[in-house]
Write a structure and sequence with these properties.
240 residues; Jelly Rolls; 2 domains; 8 helices
Length: 240
């Protein structure tokens, strides 16, 4: 138990990882009782000391530690897993009014799709803090030209910026259907990354669930041939 305390002292909300409100608390108390007074005092100070101040999606992930699968919690407790920044991305062509950004048939490919089968890598969990949506036009439908596409703001294509989107994981709603794509229109917001929408209600996605992000357009008017959409889920993920 005490080695797990050392491995998790970098995190706020250690109790949610260690399960100190559950059966594991008895194991900790038993370990403390066996120590000499000086050792016990040292560890009591560590347990009661306020953690360092986390920021951004890391702080949000720490608040959601209790929701993590047990195998992820165990990995963090043992120091086998850690938290890292990430953007899980995908690029898809705009060929119809409905564009499914993550799909079960997806195969990971650098520059096009970050994950296979619309799922996170095994033994990982991700806190989605924000979403990026950009658009661009490839020189052709060829893979190399799509990879060389320059992506920019949605405002350049009203048919897309006036559309809607939704985001689900394992059928659980993160962003509901009917949410306007205007949330990604950031041209007049200085200090915000291009096409970035910060979630006020961040959510955890686990590795064994399918991610569903769908874009709905009302019209195809003004959308160029070989138009592409880039979507990115920004946040904190567990990694070895």
């Amino acid at each position: 138990m005490l080695d797990q305390l050392e491995a998790t002292e970098q995190y706020n909300n250690q109790g949610a990882l260690l399960g100190l409100d559950g059966p594991e608390s008895e194991e900790l108390l038993g370990a403390l009782k066996k120590m000499n007074p000086l050792q016990r005092h040292k560890w009591m100070q560590k347990l009661s000391a306020p953690g360092h101040s986390s920021r951004g999606s890391r702080a949000e992930m720490e608040k959601h530690f209790a929701e993590l699968p047990q195998n992820i919690k165990d990995g963090l407790k043992k120091g086998e897993l850690r938290l890292a920044d990430t953007i899980v991305y995908v690029s898809k062509p705009v060929t119809s009014k409905t564009i499914k950004m993550f799909e079960p048939q997806d195969k990971k490919q650098v520059g096009l799709i970050a994950i296979s089968e619309g799922r996170l890598p095994k033994n990982s969990a991700m806190l989605v803090s924000g979403i990026i949506l950009l658009t661009g036009v490839a020189a052709s439908a060829g893979a190399d030209d799509i990879l060389a596409t320059t992506f920019g703001h949605l405002e350049a294509v009203p048919a897309i910026s006036n559309g809607e989107f939704s985001l689900k994981a394992n059928k659980k709603i993160i962003v509901p259907e009917g949410t306007s794509n205007r949330v990604f229109c950031t041209d007049n917001f200085h200090g915000i990354s291009l096409g970035y929408y910060k979630l006020a209600n961040p959510r955890v996605i686990q590795d064994d669930v399918i991610i569903e992000m769908q874009i709905e357009l009302g019209t195809m008017n003004g959308i160029a041939a070989n138009a592409q959409l880039f979507a990115g889920l920004h946040g904190t993920i567990t990694t070895p």
